[in-house]
């Protein structure tokens, strides 16, 4: 399982690199650079330095005692990625990729963003390394994540609102790929999740795996064993794979929570595994929400970071071989979990992370007090306050 992907970037039937001829040499150069950086001590030490002193790692493991008591079953821990610099797990990947951009001699950074957390993290590292930065963001997301748009601008990035399609993450990614094709000489594309053409899915997974490695080390010291169940939300799937991958060979149950939006039966959701079929988008073969003619359907989620009609190819592989369980929760269930986390733990979670917590709220009461569930608190919810105020 740990030998995947193969040389073509395939996880079984999924992944690969379906890009135009213009981008192919860049993708291959990036893969070579990543392979050499991975085993280069100076790259690893620099990454370690920024993980510790810039992001603030390791992030804490927190026993959510009041939620545990409230649900009355399994013991629930949070991995506090919300406490990272910039407020989410996204920065783990951005630091890694900007160091690769530097290694490749690029000086212009582009990225797509949905909730804006990846955009903010990208703008942050671009500022830190003195690089120009352009962020593509769907117009719908620009409107619902205003604070993050302002943060990106403060950090010196140009934010380009994308009006095509539904104006969400898929459309932003289309636009970023278009920019890349036209600016291959000086531009590095920092993709924000475990999607896109090879080597992005594996590279992003590796940069995010620090989450799971830290969990392993800490929970064994506290509890003397690994968690029984790991739970994380799935937009493209990067925080989930970051948590799961370092324990994928262990006897640990893993649950990825997709956005069921207004309910799977309504068709208004973003559950690509639960409700999609295989197809090709953004350079890789993956599960996608499509209509009968193979056209990509618009996803719906209350949470901008979950609002993507695809999912990372490695998740498709684990879905098919049943190593990871994939489930969904609705917008309303996520909202309830959001509120519960605020008033019981004093933690305002990102709406994305609230999806993971919502599923935990369903299963924890039925489990024994000896069962340990670890939830990835992928980000903080300051960005979501205006959406929440419309629903409460
Ligand atoms: C806080 C937070 N969690 C989760 C996600 C979903 O992304 P992924 O599935 O790649 O972790 C996002 C995406 O923007 C996010 O901002």
Automatic annotation (TrEMBL):
It comes from the Bacteria. NCBIfam families: trpB (TIGR00263). Transmembrane segments: none annotated. It comes from Candidatus Portiera aleyrodidarum (primary endosymbiont of Bemisia tabaci). Pathway: Amino-acid biosynthesis; L-tryptophan biosynthesis; L-tryptophan from chorismate: step 5/5. Belongs to the TrpB family. Its cofactor is pyridoxal 5'-phosphate. Keywords: Amino-acid biosynthesis, Aromatic amino acid biosynthesis, Lyase, Pyridoxal phosphate, Tryptophan biosynthesis. Residues 56-378 form the Tryptophan synthase beta chain-like PALP domain. It holds the Pfam family PALP. GO terms for cellular component: cytoplasm. This is Tryptophan synthase beta chain. The modification N6-(pyridoxal phosphate)lysine is found at residue 90. InterPro entries: Trp_synth_b_CS, Trp_synth_beta, Trp_synth_beta/beta-like, TrpB-like_PALP, TrpB-like_PALP_sf. Its EC number is 4.2.1.20. The keyword Acetylation does not apply. Tetramer of two alpha and two beta chains. It catalyses: (1S,2R)-1-C-(indol-3-yl)glycerol 3-phosphate + L-serine = D-glyceraldehyde 3-phosphate + L-tryptophan + H2O. GO terms for molecular function: tryptophan synthase activity. CDD domains: Trp-synth_B. The beta subunit is responsible for the synthesis of L-tryptophan from indole and L-serine. It is an enzyme of class 4 (lyase).
